[in-house]
Design goal:
- The protein is an alpha/beta fold.
- It has 2 domains: 131 residues, Aspartate Aminotransferase, domain 1; 260 residues, Aspartate Aminotransferase, domain 2, CATH 3.40.640.
- Helices cover 36% and strands 18% of the residues.
- It contains 13 helices and 17 strands.
- The strands form 5 sheets. The protein has a 7-stranded mixed β-sheet, with helices on both faces.
- β11 and β12 form a beta hairpin.
- α2 packs antiparallel against α9.
């Protein structure tokens, strides 16, 4: 029995909840295989946001009138839903952000912006990032090192793009102050052993940062079960609205961060020459937040839980295995991280053919994929790659769409060679 026929998940039925998928592109039914960049939003998420806009829209925390109170309740209820969704414990709190990028910048900058006397990072400290990271979990740490005199060290993957715990053991020492790591490489799909790596760094006294953008919509350990001080994720990777996300963390760790947005709502009191900042998480949420987005993000979390993360994962892994097998059977095609069965994406290159040309020809057949460096240029350089073609899967994708992808690549090769 195939995944598409399995009672565990029936994407054909779920597709009706995603109107965007019902269209044609270039005269062909849309096969949307760019989900690692942005997933589509289902009707329940869209409806939750519309209901808020039509009935409860108001600014939060600042009004005694009914709509303000209802908006505040909706915002805080969304926070509670998301904390439950990620498995946060009593020691954790969650601040809303515009996405993973803002969340990671909030951590990296917040650890030095308080100034030399109060900052967590000092000259001579060491920051470890992995060589798998999206630019959003690399560039902010480059800046943190420059601003503080700390040293940035990179945990390099092997020739297959895998990270190894023994290599991290060789890097971690008494100067290690931060480990920043992805839970899933967006460029290759590699899933590092982040649980053990976070524990190793934590035992050395470092703060631990997990980029969960590519993992939060899938089966992953509860945050309370991880040695994780900060966890960042985006709504648009988990069937939620764009411009939404969160930074979750242990309260004591979040309190170390100097707030980046200073102004309304993040203060307890203000005088002309000084101010007192509010408690976590409000301290990190200066200004009017995207309340509608928070409502939509919580609705996306409920949608994922209703469908079932393990069911979604089983379906995605099945589609990925189908794609890997089909692409590897084509002459001159190299698939990366083929050894990662838990991935929900497949990246590949074709000998003597540019990925952008493949992407263009696939688009002519209604198939949407991503081409380029996927905001992980150092990893591509390390692996000896140029840009790649990436197909990534969601719960609404089908075996038939994967077959169209494989056939489309095969036909592109005939045209381009």
């Amino acid at each position: 029995m195939t995944a598409a026929e399995s009672p565990l998940l029936q994407p054909a039925l779920l597709r009706s909840l995603f109107p965007v998928l019902q269209q044609q592109v270039k005269g062909q039914p849309l096969a949307y295989l760019d989900n690692a960049a942005t997933t589509q939003t289902p009707l329940p998420v869209q409806q939750a946001m519309l209901d808020f806009e039509q009935h409860d829209r108001a600014n939060i925390h600042r009004g005694v009138h009914t709509l303000s109170q209802r908006a505040t309740d909706a915002f805080e209820a969304a926070r509670t839903t998301l904390k439950t969704f990620i498995g946060a414990g009593k020691e954790h709190e969650l601040a809303f952000t515009s996405g993973t990028t803002e969340a990671l910048n909030t951590v990296a900058q917040g650890l030095w912006a308080a100034g030399p006397d109060k900052a967590w990072l000092r000259p001579g400290d060491e920051i470890i990032v992995s060589g798998l990271e999206h630019h959003a979990n690399l560039v902010p740490w480059q800046q943190a090192a420059r601003m503080t005199g700390a040293k940035l060290r990179v945990l390099m993957p092997d020739a297959q793009g895998c990270l190894h715990i023994e290599d991290l053991q060789a890097l971690v020492g008494d100067k290690t102050r931060v480990l920043a790591l992805t839970a899933g490489a967006n460029a290759t799909g590699e899933r590092p052993p982040y649980e053990a790596m976070l524990t190793l760094a934590k035992q050395a006294g470092a703060l631990t940062v997990l980029d969960a953008a590519q993992a939060v919509g899938h089966t992953m350990p509860a945050m309370a079960d991880l040695d994780c001080d900060y966890l960042a994720f985006s709504g648009h990777k988990m069937y939620g609205p764009m411009g939404t996300g969160a930074l979750a963390g242990k309260r004591k760790a979040l309190e170390l961060l100097y707030p980046l947005r200073l102004g309304g709502d993040m203060v307890e009191w203000v005088e002309y020459d000084r101010a007192g900042y509010a408690a976590i998480p409000t301290r990190l949420e200066g200004g009017t937040p995207n309340v509608t987005g928070a409502v939509g993000l919580a609705a996306a979390a409920r949608f994922i839980e209703q469908v079932g993360r393990s069911r979604i994962d089983a379906h995605l892994h099945h589609l990925r295995a189908q794609a890997v097998a089909g692409l590897q059977a084509l002459d001159g095609v190299t698939v990366f991280a083929a050894q990662s069965p838990q991935a929900a994406l497949v990246s590949f290159v074709v000998q003597d053919v540019h990925p952008h040309d493949i992407g263009t020809l696939l688009d002519e057949r209604g198939i949407a994929v991503r081409t380029g460096h996927h905001c992980a240029e150092p990893l591509h350089n390390h692996l000896g790659l140029g840009p790649t073609t990436r197909a990534s899967f969601a719960l609404y994708n089908t075996e038939a769409e994967v077959a169209r992808l494989i056939d489309g690549v095969a036909r592109a090769l005939k045209v381009l060679r």
